[in-house]
Design goal:
Length: 490
């Protein structure tokens, strides 16, 4: 018997062979003790998993056979015309394997790594399809929308207790059946707007990750899947991919041309088929601006200025020896092995709303002068498009070629990296109104995080520095601002 069952279970979830227990071990306590003492934990966890797939078990997969597991065994036996005594023999095991495999295969059970939250989640691949990212995770949905699966991540100060209190509360169209808070996680089941739901969350400090499943009564296969998915959920299987803000997603998607100048901006008239990264001109394919951020030769600019160049030229100093690009955050580092101007100091945090700022750069080099251009404006908003917290909105006029240039206050401190402007023609076509002075810069805290991630020793600005006139502030920084020229597209 032992050898036969071992062979039968090879490669299956029930991966260890049980002992067929005598009928006299029928009292629940004795029977549970017999299984716990005479079978290994892998078999017991597999038993609970398969009983979940058969729809008979909704407890934890902890490998401890107790009253709940034995009740599930007896329920399965009763439904399959067996003696419901809790004794697991070969007939029971074969029937359980057949029933659980049938359900598991019917839903197309598979695992997926969600790079949005860093979690590993089980999915019913034959029932749902990816429905895209949400603001806090990712969604999967059936074609008729009766089944929805969602991953969630909170890392902005929420506590597990607070999230549990909110999600476990009843509402007008929501009834919570069970809400179990245990250790560093919780599980909630109930009905909302006519659909069953299951929510599972786990926390690690202020990093909270979870998933939810909602399904209609017509989707009977989802209930066992939901239980197995909850018990196999791995919230901290990996680290989330770098978070993209709305503006970064515009650049990534290729839709930036309709909103802002950037990697898809229109080129200058002299080279109508070029336009990767700013404005074009004689002798090079595109251009932008960069500024010195370290004493060992690093300049900061935009990724869309430098990413597609075979060679990056810094003014008349020659070619950069190294280029580091972060397209997700539209930032790039350019390394020069020649003497440069003094590194510009970057403010800690963010500037004040309404603060006077200067945008420095080399716009429209094929049309305007090759010398440094300075424009003045204000910080109009501490957020970018669609509340993107990586960007500032500014009123200082900028043009293609300003990309990557420093935005400084009247003390000469860097308060942003100029990156984009709203496309007035495109917006006018959509809204019937012509926007004015709506431009964007990457916030200094986002730039600082990028520099820190690449071990660039930048200077933090003196918060008590005195504000000066526009000419004086410009004079303090102008020798550290350089045109960035792109020679040859990759």
């Amino acid at each position: 018997m032992r050898a036969a069952i071992t062979a039968m279970l090879t490669g299956l979830v029930l991966c260890a062979s049980p002992l067929a227990l005598p009928a006299h071990a029928s009292p629940t306590g004795e029977l549970a003790a017999a299984y716990n003492q005479n079978t290994d934990i892998a078999f017991r966890k597999g038993l609970q998993t398969r009983l979940a797939w058969s729809g008979d078990y909704q407890g934890p997969f902890d490998g401890e056979v107790g009253p709940q597991t034995l009740r599930a065994v007896r329920d399965f036996q009763a439904r399959h015309a067996m003696v419901a005594d809790g004794v697991m023999d070969e007939r029971f095991l074969r029937a359980l394997i057949e029933a659980s495999d049938k359900t598991r295969d019917a839903v197309g059970f598979t695992f997926a790594d969600d790079t949005t939250t860093g979690a590993r989640i089980a999915l019913p691949g034959t029932l749902v399809e990816p429905a895209g990212d949400t603001e806090i995770g990712r969604m999967w949905r059936s074609a008729d929308s009766r089944i929805e699966i969602e991953t969630v991540r909170f890392n902005d100060g929420h506590t597990l207790d607070r999230v549990f209190d909110v999600l476990s509360a009843n509402g007008p169209d929501r009834r919570v059946a069970t809400a179990e808070r245990k250790g560093d996680g919780f599980t909630i089941r109930g009905i909302e707007e006519g659909r069953d739901f299951l929510i599972r969350f786990q926390g690690r400090g202020t990093d909270l990750r979870g998933f939810s499943v909602a399904w209609s009564d017509q989707d009977a296969l989802v209930r066992p899947y939901a239980q197995v998915a909850a018990e196999s959920f791995q919230p901290f299987a990996g680290e989330p991919a770098a978070e993209l803000g709305p503006m970064a997603k515009l650049f990534e998607s290729g839709r930036a041309a309709g909103v802002a100048f950037g990697e898809e901006a229109a080129a200058a008239p002299t080279t109508p088929d070029k336009g990767k990264g700013g404005t074009a001109g004689p002798g090079f394919d595109s251009s932008g601006t960069g500024f010195v951020v370290s004493s060992d030769g690093w300049l900061l600019t935009n990724a869309h200025v430098a990413k597609s160049c075979k060679t990056v030229l810094v003014g008349d100093l020659g070619a950069a020896s190294k280029v580091v690009v972060d397209e997700d955050h539209d930032l790039a580092l350019v390394k020069m092995d020649k003497p440069l101007g003094k590194p510009l100091a970057i403010v800690g945090g963010k500037p004040r709303l309404g603060e006077d700022v200067l945008a420095l750069g080399f716009p429209l080099r094929s049309i305007l002068a090759d010398s440094l251009n300075v424009t003045r404006g204000n910080v109009s908003s501490l957020m970018g498009l669609m509340n993107d917290a990586n960007y500032l909105q500014i009123s200082a006029p900028v043009q293609p070629g300003n990309s990557g240039g420093p935005l400084v206050d009247l003390a000469g401190r860097v308060v942003g990296v100029v990156t984009a402007k709203l496309n007035a023609v495109a917006v006018a076509d959509l809204t019937g109104d012509i926007p004015q002075s709506i431009n964007f810069a990457i916030r200094p805290d986002a730039a600082a995080r990028f520099l820190e991630a690449h071990d660039v020793r930048y200077q933090t600005a003196d918060a008590s520095a005195t504000l000066e006139s526009v000419p004086d502030a410009t004079a303090k920084v102008q020798d550290s601002v350089y045109p960035i020229l792109c020679l040859g597209s990759k």
